[in-house]
Amino acid sequence: METQAFQKVYTKILNLTKATVTLKATDVGNEEMAMVHGRMGQVVKIMGDEVILQVFAGTEGIPTNAEVVFLGHSPQLKVGDQLAGRFFNAFGDPIDGGPDVEGRIIETGGPSVNPVRRKQPSDLIATGIAGIDLNNSLVTGQKIPFFADPDQPYNQVMANVALRAEADKIILGGMGLSNDDYLYFKNVFDNAGALDRIVSFVNTTDDPPVERLLIPDMALSAAEYFAEEKQQKVLVLLTDMTLFADALSIVSNRMDQIPSKDSMPGSLYSDLARIYEKAVQFPHGGSITIIAVTTLNGGDITHAIPDNTGYITEGQLFLRMDSDVGKVIVDPFRSLSRLKQLVIGKQTREDHPQVMNAAIRLYADAANAKTKQDNGFDLTDYDERTLKFARAYSEQILAVDINIDTEKMLDTTWELFQDNFAREEVVVRQEFVDKYWKK
Amino acid sequence: MERKNKTTGVVAGIIANLVIVEVEGPVAQNEICFIQHPESNLMAEVIKILGKNVYVQVFESTRGLKIGTKVEFEGHLLEVTLGPGILSRNYDGLQNDLDKMDGVFLKRGDYTDPLNREKKWDWTPIAKAGEEVSAGSWLGEVPENGMPHRIMVPFKFEGKYTVKSVVEAGAYTVDNVIATVTDKEGNDIDLTMVQKWPVKMAVKAYNEKPRPFKLLETGIRTMDTLNPIAEGGTGFIPGPFGTGKTVLQHAISKYAEADIVIIAACGERANEVVEIFTEFPELEDPRTGRKLIERTTIIANTSNMPVAAREASVYTAMTLGEYYRSMGLRVLLMADSTSRWAQALREMSNRLEELPGPDAFPMDLTAIITSFYARAGFVYLNNGESGSITFIGTVSPAGGNLKEPVTESTRKAARCFYGLNQERADSKRYPAIDPIDSYSKYLEYPELVEYLTKNISEDWLDKVMHTKTLLLRGREAQEQINILGDDGVPLEFHERFWNSELIDGVILQQDSFDKIDANCPLDRQKYMLEKVLDITEKKFSFDSFEDVNGFFKRIINELKQMNYSEWNSDKFKAYESELETIMKERLN
Ligand SMILES: Nc1ncnc2c1ncn2[C@@H]1O[C@H](COP(=O)(O)OP(=O)(O)O)[C@@H](O)[C@H]1O
Ligand SMILES: [Mg+2]
Known about the structure:
heterodimer, A: alpha/beta, Elongation Factor Tu (Ef-tu), domain 3, Rossmann fold, 10-stranded mixed sheet, 7-stranded antiparallel sheet, B: alpha+beta, Thrombin, subunit H, CATH 2.40.50.100, 9-stranded mixed sheet, 6-stranded antiparallel beta barrel, 32% helix, binds adenosine-5'-diphosphate, binds magnesium ion
């Protein structure tokens, strides 16, 4: 970005910390962007004529006589159809060697949709993954993260979901993405012939971590452009939100704020909600669906990051390695799609809700049987059957490598019921038993 | 706080939504001001005054705000506007009518009128010339969605007044003068249907506030039967995310025995509010046959809306509740989630660099929560009529740990505790209210017990207590079975365990998404509880513990099918007789 003639140049920095510079300046707006010694910064506090700027890349090497130029606007993005197929950094500048985008400038991180202008999400998103479609069906306009340990294949699963979701646009917000993962996404989307439907905003592990804080707003502003103005179905992928939250804690720590649980800022809930609540279904058909990744530390969901996330999002997809079948599964106990009841049994077959619940209950019985077994007790015949059921259910339904339609998922589950149980052991409404219990 | 000239000031500091204003002239704590940002006026509330520096929390984003911007103080606290036309409206936390705003996105500084000023209301006078009146006295009424909406002497009026005149029956707008009253000095004051009240102050225009003594039927078995809430009572629902707080609150708001339902969506998901907009206009109030939306008002300050207005939203909701209570109506107030309000307090307290209490929450958190809950209650009005606010808040404990400040503070304030249990939710045993840890202090109120005895049955409380005992014994039996193994315990332990499973499956569990099971009226609750207790009394003969399991699963299944069937329908009776047949097999 070039310095323009009317812009005032300041050259006297009063205070310098690891993340911020303070200088005397006038006529500066809160949250205004600035160039500090060639690095991007943003106003975070103003006290009288003293302005405190956060420098995204850190202040290393910045001298007290560095040039500071205020840009007269808060973070912004140029939007237009040309965004499609392109890769950008956290500031919205191309990183794919292509030309600058032509388009209209919009402010990112803008206001939220008036709740009365929203429509209740109602369109099922089929992913082919039964652990999702059968037990945790997704709906357009939903926001939901994968909860996964760092060694699980969440980016692969997410890429699969994205490609099968029939979205008009897929917007990737990569935060702290390793270069390999960045190239992985680029390749799968390219191989699927989908690159022209995809817009990416990427902060890799090579970039300063604090810059990540701008990624979700960039991605979601682009999403709003396509979903609201162009009335498209937009899917936003945010990976990894744990690294985003880590950056928040770095900043609040450097600004000497009082940390709350797990060294996270007290505003973590609001900071995350502002992002996730951008998911929306518009009455005109356009929508923003957010699928995110929150990596866990040893499966601990009580940590402030997954905990606050769970309170905000409309459920979570919990990935877990099932050592009995040697596959990664969508854990039916800790996973939840809060919007599933809007579509299951309505856009899917009538028996869907009951079959789903019955199977999970039986799977829970199996977990109890397993505990019994581990404690060295004899198993009953029923226990044995639940264990057999659970293994088959894990393999044929819960595993993330499944790709079948919902009808088939339901039929498979009925078969597993009939293979292992008597009718009254599977508590399902009588009318469905009469209809689907074939044996 | 009335002033001739508005106090003014200029912005001198900005830290997120905390703004420091340098002021000339008098300012009051909690006074409202407007920051004259060139794009739009931004509303803010005074939260601290240090000499010339007045700290205000802005109810909007402060992006782009500059030092030196002019600020005007309004001379009043944060107020709501009270009058007919509040029902079925969707307001934000500051009572702006969301439907009146233009555009898809909320615009900063877009403040809209909560009332409809054009609509004519069908007025019937109540008070007569010459009568002595005071704050809260009914002057007349207009029908609002089938409910009598009483127009009252404004709550701000102190002392006694004499009615000079009341307009005759007819159609009037809210701004028409409907009565004139004379104060002690002989000054005439014209009154319209509209009045204002500062949200953070409790409305006290009633005669007395007795202890709650009536049961408030919610249609939720595990609440009404085991741990009932009283009309005018308070309760809270703590639970980790996804355990069913919101679904439970929505279910209560659909079927509870209330005239008015006010829902404060406080810092939670926008789609949950949309669910109410979408469903309530379709659903019927089982008691009046009118649409649910007609008795409902929503205060939506969802999690992406300005944080400072989150705090305001619960107070706005409470004040609207107090207004309707003063009309002699039964108000049910819900706030989801009060933890978000506490977090908003925490964010501001941290910005003010106050000394933090536990988990960085403000030191006075308990006091704030307690005085808020204290505004609920059953009251006798000055004219002898009664009204009530029953308040139920949800709490979202960090990490699901109930030993955190918001849960602990709320425990001191609320009389019913409906703790949602993660394991119950994981195994889809909804509503996941833990039957053993949860409690209703009202069961210890002789007034309420008397009410139950009179209105349900002589031995109702004994049955309830016995049910709790059976649940506890079931849990103990289960623990023994887990330790000693199925064969390591007497058969009776299995029976004990399965008796508690029977109560769990048939009474505690309830499917909020099933058309029929979602709402269980009290007479049906009584019938089912008696049926279940009856079974637990029977002596069945079993050969092995596997017999016990199989048998109980079958009878639970039949009873569940009864729950899913229309009350006393042929289907219901058919399952009931199947149940008898199954039981006969094991009765000798
Ligand atoms: N009473 C119930 N009946 C059936 N399902 C329920 C019930 N309560 C909760 N659920 C399920 O649990 C999910 C989460 O419930 P919700 O009330 O949104 O949780 P919370 O508000 O505690 O985070 C719902 O989307 C629904 O699938
Ligand atoms: Mg909730």
